[in-house]
From TrEMBL, chain A:
Protein name according to UniProt: Branched-chain amino acid transport ATP-binding protein LivF
GO molecular function: ATP binding; ATP hydrolysis activity; branched-chain amino acid transmembrane transporter activity
Domain ABC transporter: 2-233
Record family assignment: Belongs to the ABC transporter superfamily.
UniProtKB/TrEMBL annotation, chain B:
Membrane topology: Multi-pass membrane protein
CDD domains: TM_PBP1_LivH_like
Keyword list, A-Z: Amino-acid transport, Cell inner membrane, Cell membrane, Membrane, Transmembrane, Transmembrane helix, Transport
Name of the protein this chain belongs to: High-affinity branched-chain amino acid transport system permease protein LivH
Species annotation: Mesobacillus selenatarsenatis (strain DSM 18680 / JCM 14380 / FERM P-15431 / SF-1)
Membrane-crossing segments per the record: 6-33, 61-82, 94-116, 136-160, 190-212, 267-285
Pfam entry (one): BPD_transp_2
């Protein structure tokens, strides 16, 4: 459904991405692994339209969407949960959720908000509180719930486990799996390689702006090279 | 005497509040001080003079014309003085500020040219109507100004708090990137914000014309600087802060004239800024920025 072909993106004169190609099949979970500064977030931002690539093409369902603005891409079904969650801290939890459905004009928005609040009871409990008062884990859930309310076909998640306690991280990965099972395709960027690969079908490894390895998640999990570099375990 | 001054102060303060709201909206969304806001306000006042004095038109028509003209000026300001500087590499963050200063000078010169340098009286049919309540004299014009200000502030608060477009504006003000990820066309939101802020400036212009019965091309600068003082006082980009700050400044100025020395009237605003910045750098309603 998503096809990224040879994109190169730069900030000013610094080339961050060099000729990246990747593919996400409908219904799957795909992970992009990489260390800090490898270009993971830049890849996500280029796909969702926050950055424009100097070269290359982004195709969504066969349609060239390169250079479209994020607010246009949300309408075609690509939603990003950005790095650091980016909750609107001056707006209430409920308003954050309503903003998730901003582009929608159907009459099921209320129903959908009820549904996500049932899935995340803490959001229901705190729906009148300002978004900024939530804890990190709660903010991540709010960010994911908010993105889901746009009814995305493809959900991009940029380091959803960042800065969260291990138990909360496990919870987040469980939620990601559930979202996928409910029919949403997921593209995930993570440093938490093991957990990310366990939930995903396919993985890419990014290093200094280039894809240096790719494969089925199970294969990557057992690849000694990848293990050593990204899973913190010496190959034996 | 005290109550009369209180009424004077509230009348003046509610006008200041509306001027400050225009500043605070633009600051909230764009993060810049719109130095041309005072001059757009002044144009609103002149439209009022032209409609009511030159063409002897009714007051509502003056408001409608001022909203239209200043709204268009807001659009032109955003389209030609602000947007070209946005998201461009190598443009100093001071460039939009300088650009709005340029527009303000242009507008002031333009108004000299169009309207002349002198003082223009503002004719309205009910300027002299007043009520006597006990020993207190209340002018109808004060009530009208106060009512219009309250309606305007209430409408703005409701719009920002309850409507989809208002929420989009708040989201854009808090985080432009996030707002666009949620589907907000931020370019459109910014344009709309500058138009609304300018139209509010235009309305405030007419209110000042009604209150002081005097309109000059120079009035933009002083009211612009006061509006700036108010949003620093109330907290940058904060809507409640702009309303409260406006009222505080209006009351303070009125009382300094009555009980103190009228020569210090305009100094009050800036003395207040210095004190506030020392005691509460984030302003009365502003959030402390944590490290």
């Amino acid at each position: 459904m998503l096809k990224v072909q040879g994109i190169s993106t730069s900030y000013g004169k610094i080339n961050v991405l060099k000729n990246i190609s990747l593919e996400v099949e409908e219904g799957s979970i795909v992970t992009i692994l990489g260390a800090n500064g490898a270009g993971k977030s830049t890849t996500m931002k280029t796909i969702c339209g926050l950055l424009k690539p100097q070269e290359g093409k982004v195709e969504f369902f066969g349609e060239d969407v390169t250079g479209r603005r994020p607010d246009q891409l949300v309408r075609t079904g690509i939603a990003l949960v950005p790095e650091g969650r980016q909750i609107l801290s001056g707006m209430t939890v409920l308003e954050n959720l309503e903003m998730g459905a901003y582009h929608r004009k159907d009459n099921e928005i209320k129903h959908d908000i009820e549904k996500v609040m049932e899935r995340f009871p803490i959001l229901k409990e705190r729906h009148q509180q300002l978004g900024g008062t939530l804890s990190g884990g709660q903010q991540q859930m709010l960010a994911i719930a908010r993105a889901l309310l746009s009814r995305p076909k493809l959900l991009l998640l940029d380091e959803p486990s960042m800065g969260l306690a291990p138990l909360v991280v496990a919870d987040i990965f469980k939620i990601i799996k559930e979202i996928n099972e409910a029919g949403t395709t997921v593209l995930l960027v993570e440093q938490n390689a093991r957990q990310a690969l366990r939930v995903s079908d396919y993985g890419y490894v990014l290093e200094t702006g280039k894809i240096i390895a790719e494969g089925k998640s199970n294969d990557l999990l057992t690849d000694p090279r990848i293990m050593e570099a990204y899973l913190g375990r010496k190959s034996s | 005497m005290l109550i009369e001054q209180l009424i004077n102060g509230i009348t003046l303060g509610s006008i200041y509040a509306i001027v400050a709201l225009g500043f605070t909206l633009v600051f909230g969304v764009l993060g810049i001080i719109n130095m041309a806001h005072g001059e757009i306000f002044m144009f609103g006042a002149f439209i009022g003079v032209i409609v009511t004095s030159t063409f002897k038109g009714p007051l509502w028509l003056a408001f409608a014309a001022a909203i239209l003209v200043t709204g268009i000026m807001g659009y032109l300001l955003e389209r030609f003085a602000l947007r070209p500087l946005r998201n461009k590499q190598g443009v100093s963050h001071l460039a939009p500020l300088i650009s709005t200063i340029g527009v303000s000078i242009l507008l002031e010169n333009l108004s000299h040219h169009l309207f002349g340098a002198g003082n223009h009286p503002f004719n309205n049919t009910f300027a002299e109507i007043s009520f006597q309540i006990g020993s207190i004299t209340v002018y109808l014009v004060q009530i009208v100004i106060f009512m219009i200000s309250v309606i305007l502030m209430y409408t703005l608060s409701y719009w920002l708090g309850k409507t989809k477009a208002g929420k989009a504006l708040r989201a854009t003000a808090e985080n432009l990137e996030t707002a666009s990820l949620l589907g907000v066309d931020t370019k459109k939101t910014i344009t709309m914000t500058v138009i609304i802020a300018s139209a509010m400036g235009g309305i405030a212009g007419i209110l000042v014309g009604m209150a002081f019965n005097s309109v000059t091309p120079q009035m933009g600068l002083s009211i612009g600087l006061k509006g700036l003082a108010i949003i620093i006082l109330g907290g940058m980009g904060n809507v409640k802060g702009a309303m409260a700050g406006g009222l505080i400044l209006g009351l303070a100025e009125t009382f300094i004239v009555v009980y103190g020395n009228s020569g210090y009237r305009d100094a009050i605003a800036f003395a207040a800024i210095i004190v506030i910045l020392l005691v509460r750098p984030q302003g009365l309603f502003g959030q402390k920025i944590s490290a």
